[in-house]
Amino acid sequence: MIVSKVMLAVGALVLVAVGTPHAQDRAPGNPRDVDPATVRAGQGLFRERCAECHGADAKGVPNHDLTRLWASGATDDRVFQTIRAGVPNTIMPSSSAPDVELSALVSYLRSLNDAAPAEAARGNAVNGERIFWSTCGSCHAVGIRGGHLGPDLSRVGLNHSREALMQLIRSPKASVAGPYQPVTLVTRDGQRIRGAKKSEDAFSIQIMDTHEQLQGYLKASLRDVIADTSSLMPAFGPDRLNDRDLDDLLQYLNTLRAAGPATGRGAGRGRAGQ
Amino acid sequence: MPISLRRIIGMAACLAVVGGALVVAQESVASGVTFQDLVQGYKNPARWLSFSGDYSGQRHSPLKQITPENARGLTAQWAFQTGVIPRRGFEGTPLVADGVMYLTGPFNNAWALDARTGRPFWRYQRQLPNDLTYGNISPVNRGFGLLGDRLFMLTLDAHLVSLNAKTGTVIWDSTLADYKIGYAATGAPLVVKDKVIIGISGGDFPTRGFIDAYDPKTGARIWRFYTVPGPGEAGSETWPAADVMARGGGATWVTGSYDPELNMVYWGTGNPNPLYYGDDRKGTNLYTASIVALDADTGTLKWTFQFSPHDTHDWDSTHVPVLADLTIAGQPRKVVMVANRNGFFYVFDRATGKLLVGKPFSDTTWARELGPDGHPIVLNDGSKGCLPDQWGSTNYMPPSFDPERRLFFVTVRETCAQYLPVKEEIVPGRISNSGTVRRDAEHSYGVLRAIDPTTVERRWEFKYPTPTMAGVMSTASGVVFAGDNEGNFIAFDGRTGKSVWSYSTGSPIWGAAPMTFMLDGRQHVIIGSGTTVTSFALPDTKK
Question: What is the value of pTM for the model shown?
């Protein structure tokens, strides 16, 4: 019988996993003690099941750099549960793979994170929170407070590096995928309606307009559907947000790691994957 | 449902191993659907007896009740909930014979339904091992083969099973290959004369592809054609070493077509292995990413053509080959047509394999023309981005061909991607991507395109917001049925491409193609999507 290295590694983990309900308990406590074979098994599983979306280097999804998860405060258990449950309303599905396979994936991802350089913390989070609610909160939510036109930022500190967030604030790009693509609808009487596209098929389009109203239109009733190239979010250059305030804001955003509200994440796109 | 006396007499309850096949119960295959019925294809409008509906692979029904003018009146007649959540999609084409629909689904579930109501007669569920390899990644099935009163289904653990069409019980069960290495089987068998011809899946793992023929009575293997040659055999000069050939890929997971006059089977072959890193398999890697024409009696290779030499883009050439009679350059030709994952549309003389037409049907940047040898003149190896992604300009979803209007209807994927090959250890039982692909969602969309197969000119197209994996069926009345990734099942006017009706199924139509049949004087159209199979028809005017 041919037994792959994946199976061997998984088999070894089974011995560790018996009777323990949480991944954090299942995986060896010190990441540097993880069996290299387990990491290799996790790498194989990652390439097989994750790399198509997340990239072979685990940096494939814009602003979701998986090599920085632990540096951003993630834990084995949280990563394990995220893989298990998927991310609701996104294209990331839940997984029914055995626990030992998910643990191997966690070990592999953690090995990438161990190699990533740490970021120096700076800035005043208290002032950053004040800036957030005066500048960002009308469109972005944290917990139950804030707007919904842009992404919920309740957990933004978990999976966004400081550098990535800074770029998003200084020069936001129009999202080309996901539920925040900017779009302008032109009605037959010439009215222009701007919003974030939530869904679209050949015959209809569904948006949240800039007043946060959810609206659906039949394309036959529209004169035009324009995919905007500029983000709904304005650019916050140094003239609108000086470097010191930006540091403070980034420091505040880095503290946002709580579970977000169940609602307000918008509809996901159709599934990918062959 | 009563079983006839003849059938009962024909049954001989026994348990024996015949030629490697576990025979659970022996019974006659003389009753029911015959080879002549299969040759006649659509002649009986109440039947759809094979994956493509007939041997030509045209998926073009002669039915005319539903027209571009009245299609807006189509309504759902019934929905069958499989109760099985697919990991990819519901990809099967049901068969219909004498009011009974035979359906296969994910994880080797199968059903016989009352085609009038969608109510089940029986269900078969295979007990699959928990260490599937490719079958775990792609737990789909695309349909049954049918001969006599026997159904034939391929399985995710690389077996071929025969089921009693009346009961769903297993008659015999034959092992094709070792699933633990990476093999699986997902396609619909093609019944030709007294043989069940099948293809294998798992070319993304270190396996060696083949096409087999089995005895429908016993499950014993009659012949095997390896899609990658053995040492010293013709084609071995296109590989660097025997061990590389032994795991060279070339899976055969989409059902082929058959010409009864020439007695040739036409079948597409998949990507070489490993997928993206090709430096350790230098050469053109015959017969991967090719079409092969085989003698149906012996499996002997009659001719072959390789679409993507030394493929490093996962561009399987596993498409339904479409047979037709065309006049090309003033000369009548019996042809086989292929809209290929590499972005080119090909027409061959199907007796000789002579290439007659080869031009892009998509906006591929990989190559824009073929050289004198028929090989593409490659402009972009994939490192620069924007050529078809790894799922190609089209894929395994069946196209259709309307011979009267001389239009080939194909779901096209216009995509961009960058290929990043990496040398990796090749391990049996483990997928050997050897690299990855970065897709560019911003420049990707789907389109249903009608092309003239003699010139590859685009006659019309209908754009979908995202790349789409839905199959196509057309009818003699000029209706084209297709679908999209957003879940719409759509009827088009085949003359203009105008959508005349649509129904949101609620789940992407993924790999599945429509089929149609007459029942109680009404034309029914069937599509599978997500966990559901739905039947549509025009209103019943007799009520």
Answer: 0.81
